[in-house]
Design brief:
Helices cover 27% and strands 14% of the residues. The protein has 540 residues and is of the alpha/beta class. α1 runs parallel beside α2 and α5 packs parallel to α7. The protein is globular.
Length: 540
């Protein structure tokens, strides 16, 4: 096995396209804006970018309801602009991953529209999960499953003669019908989609809901029907993590290997895999399946040295043991931003949350394997927790009426410059307002300000990425745990590189004498302050 493939220790930056940079003045980020921001990302030092969906879509779930998998929605540009973005990324040495959504499509997809127009039992309906309802008039859903975004997982259709008809399955929203992967035309169609984008030069795919796709063939009732809606995670074993899904990833891996064999350039498959244990997670990254899968346990771990050590140990044991490398994440477009999550009762995370987020970033960059950074994390952006109800766009809010776990707060457009909204996100005399309002305090987090302040989050990330690229001890490899004081996590990466994190608030003696090579905050020689991480070089 080639252990030096680019993806094994890559640092990828997640671009949420509609919130990155707007080039047209309509208040929505676009592909030309991403292209304009590439020099910024090159300066930061990332190896590649992952683009959120930009395909034609009615945007009920901001592009995760795909109406056409081989195009660009006009709000984001067109295929020519995509090709210009790819060319610019190539010149800068930045790899490009696309977000592909194989579990479900848009209710406006041509195949689903054909299914609605067809009769029960037709080949068109067999591409999805249509079923007769229960009860004397079929007016009850076929089973008791609930959707992850709230409400039942079934919607009843009106047949061509005007009568109430069958029901169709949607594990997210009614606008996102689930594909039936047991139908032979579905995998063939996605083969075509993969090849379309691979032929345009993409470096791989981030796979949405990678533990989904297959449902239990009998669609039986669940013992805990509200589990998915309650946790907003893939916990219904009848709807997720079915054994047949692994055949899909073997098929997709073979397609990627075919392209790699032609030109020697690795293509990457990285999955959004939500499963209960690291051992189940490891099944998705066996040598003939996905190259990598996001390991979310670090993201969800409480700020505690023992908790972090446990999830890191399990990942290294079970996932790295397959021959893959662990794919670490601290945030993404579905999660509360790190400084707020770690800030406990401080929604802006400006004190304790910021210190912990800086330390966690340095820890993540020191771990063996790959890492993904969500846009704005390098600025220390907090979650926007006070968006008015009338601007919220998350379908979770529309479906439940609850603000709990609504994701708009981490998707507010990035601040680039200036003292007032739109903070350089969009420009021009007649520009529209950003699609989500930016708070006034974003003036403290603009990229211009961050680049000028050597103490900023941005410089911590940039310095960490530069050292990660320069020091052979970092990136891929193993770690060795070191004895440390209570509340301190310490390990070495070989050849004298030590990383330590103090999860407490009290200062403790540093694990290694002398000044640190890089620290997440003020770190005097011989001392590791609370909520601080640092790297040291020793004599071995």
């Amino acid at each position: 096995m080639d252990t030096h493939r680019w993806w094994r220790d890559a640092v990828i930056y997640q671009v949420y396209v509609r919130s990155f940079l707007d080039s047209t003045g309509d208040g929505i980020g676009d592909l030309a804006g991403v292209r304009a921001g590439l020099p910024y990302l090159k300066k930061l030092g990332v190896d590649g970018i992952w683009l959120s969906p930009f395909y034609p879509s009615p945007q009920h779930d901001h592009g995760y309801d795909v109406a056409h998998y081989c195009g660009v929605d006009p709000v984001f540009g067109d295929l020519d602009e995509f090709d210009r973005l790819m060319a610019a990324a190539r010149r800068l040495g930045i790899r490009v991953l696309l977000d592909i959504v194989p579990n479900h499509c848009s209710s406006e997809h041509s195949w689903f529209q054909a299914a609605l127009a067809a009769e029960p039992g037709s080949p068109e309906r067999a591409r999805f999960h249509f079923a007769d309802g229960r009860g004397p008039d079929g007016d009850e859903p076929p089973n008791n499953w609930h959707a992850m975004f709230g409400g039942p997982a079934w919607t009843r259709v009106t047949e061509s003669d005007g009568r109430p008809g069958q029901w169709y399955l949607h594990m997210f929203t009614p606008e996102q019908p689930d594909w039936n992967w047991r139908h032979p035309e579905v995998p063939v169609e996605f083969d075509r989609v993969l090849r379309f984008w691979l032929d345009r030069g993409v470096d791989g795919f981030r796979i949405d809901v990678a533990a989904g796709l297959y449902k239990h063939p009998d669609l039986p009732d669940s013992d805990d029907p509200e589990a998915d809606a309650r946790t907003r995670d893939s916990v219904n074993p009848l709807a997720w993590n079915q054994p047949e899904v692994h055949d899909v990833w073997r098929r997709w891996r073979a397609i990627c290997e075919e392209y790699t064999a032609e030109d020697g350039h690795d293509r990457l498959l990285v999955g959004e895999v939500s499963v209960p244990t690291a051992r189940e997670h490891a099944m998705y990254v066996r040598p003939d399946e996905l190259h990598q899968a996001f390991f979310f346990d670090l993201l969800s771990a409480p700020w505690d040295a023992d908790a972090f050590r446990k999830v890191i140990f399990e990942a290294m044991q079970d996932i790295a043991g397959t021959g893959s490398t662990v794919t670490w994440v601290l945030n993404n477009h579905d999660q509360v931003r790190t400084v707020t999550r770690y800030g406990e009762h401080d929604p802006h995370g400006s004190g304790l949350g910021a210190s912990r987020a800086r330390a966690a970033a340095l820890l993540m960059l020191a771990l063996p394997g790959a890492a993904y950074i969500y846009q704005g994390e390098e600025l220390g952006l907090p979650e926007v927790v006070d968006l008015p109800d009338d601007v919220l766009t998350d379908p979770i809010f529309r479906r439940t009426g609850s603000r709990s776990r609504v994701r708009d707060g981490c998707r507010v457009p990035l601040p680039w410059s200036g003292q007032a909204s739109p903070f350089g996100f969009t420009s021009g005399a007649h520009s529209a307002k950003p699609w989500l309002p930016q708070p006034e305090y974003f003036a403290l987090y603009t990229t211009d300000r961050a680049l000028d302040d050597t103490r900023s989050f941005w410089h911590l990330y940039r310095d960490g990425l530069q050292l990660r690229a320069a020091l052979p001890q970092l990136g891929e490899g193993t770690l060795r745990w070191l004895e440390s004081a209570p509340g301190v996590l310490a390990f070495d990466r070989g050849d004298g590189l030590v990383c330590a994190v103090n999860f407490g608030t009290a200062d403790t003696p540093a694990p290694v004498p002398g000044a640190p090579l890089l620290a997440s905050g003020p770190c005097p020689a011989g001392v590791l302050p609370g909520s601080t991480a640092a790297w040291w070089l020793t004599d071995g």
